[in-house]
What we know:
Radius of gyration: 21 Å
Largest sheet: none
Shape: elongated
Distance between the termini: 37 Å
CATH class of the domain at 32-100: Mainly Alpha
Structural class: mainly alpha
CATH superfamily of the domain at 32-100: F1F0 ATP synthase subunit C
Amino acid sequence: MKKLQYLFTALSMLCFAMPALAQSSGSAAMDLAPIGVGLGMGLAAGLCGLGQGRAVGSTTEALARNPGTRGQLMTFMIIGLAFIESLTLFTFAMIIIKVK
């Protein structure tokens, strides 16, 4: 865990080193929007994928234990997956709005 913390610290220093050390004599500021877009969409898609995997795994385990509850479990699983997927779509929409 400590190594991961050092990695993210080093990456954040590398991302912001260029604007911090830039000369002030007429140089344009570096646009960090593409980096933010990439990080935001990557985090949203990755974490929503993990959430969907856990939801489907838990539903499959519940169906293996009690197959009689298939109808109710499937309904709740589909609704839950729709909510999880909507988080990624909302993030995508916010990124599109911000970039334009």
